Amino acid sequence: MFDSFGEQMELFFRILVAAACGAAIGFERKNRAKGAGIRTHLIVALASALMMVVSKYGFFDVLSENVRLDPSRVAAGIVTGVGFLGAGLIFARKQGVSGITTAAGVWATVGVGMTVGAGMYLIGILSTVLILVCQVFLHKDYDWLKEPVARQAILLTDGDGSVLPELESRMKLHGVDVISLRTKVETDGT
Asked: What's this model's pTM, rounded to 2 decimal places?
């Protein structure tokens, strides 16, 4: 079906638009010094658009009355495969996890690439803008977006622990809720 130069250039244009959208998303991540930046997001969007183009148009030469294909199978494979890539971007450190937003961004970038590769330029470009707006706007430290944070504090004191009620009241004064409190007397008296 896509034998002419013009038809193939139109499909390649889809891949270029997807790559540009991926680069825009990656640029935001790079500016926040995240693990996956411009190149990663660009390649993810480009590759997913390429796979969508192949999925939709790459098998017309083998189609016949007896041969039927399901183009959505490649799309499902792309979504599954990006899970592996996203898992490699998530790191567990100490008592926290990092890389989840970057992994989600890569997953969204796959969606953008697939959308543009399917020929839905406007949806792909507008989704890119929406992803960027969300990442930039929601990255700020707004009070209404703050999630409760649990931390563990270890305090060493001299004496019998009579300082603990005072410590707890001062923490509450600063908006810190004490979830649990344990005391232990060490052999050296602390």
From this structure: 0.59
